[in-house]
Amino acid sequence: MLTLKGENLYLRALEPEDLDFVYILENDERVWEMSATQTPYSRFLIKQYLENAHQDIYEAKQLRLVICTIDHASIGLIDLFDYNPTHNRAGVGVLIAEKKHRGKGYGAEALKLIVSYGFTHLRLHQLYANIAEDNLTSIKLFENQGFTKIGVKKEWNLVDTIYKDEFLYQLLYVH
Prior knowledge:
Elements: E1 9-13, H1 19-26, H2 32-35, H3 43-51, H4 57-60, E2 63-69, E3 74-84, E4 89-96, H5 106-120, E5 126-132, H6 136-144, E6 148-159, E7 162-172
Parallel strand pairs: 4-5
Antiparallel strand pairs: 1-2, 2-3, 3-4, 5-7, 6-7
């Protein structure tokens, strides 16, 4: 599918062989704050999740794709979540797994591809992202892709012993 292929990477569906990759990412406590996760996931649960990954976005209300380099290395995940076909909107989140792959434009390219897919194939009217106030890398990423900060959720997330604000970013489809 050309929509999900860029110059330096492509996005693909989850496969059973992604078990170890997803297990490592989902159990990385450094990203739990971004995903609102509080507890680790077992291999069994992730295996079940992968077995049900065949559900389409209309059934599951989410779409998770693996971000792969042109040489087929899995480097991250990108999600459309809270898909709402009535209002034609979805949330979007992106994670580049390892530091060695960050800062190379992969997140921007993956985000550009999923935005294009959402607007053209899913006929979305808008995408949104929830970003922690101190996640400057994500703020820059989304702003550079045309997302606009439209709100602040005050003291939204408790991280350790500190309540942090969360910003709401939005991108509207321009006809």
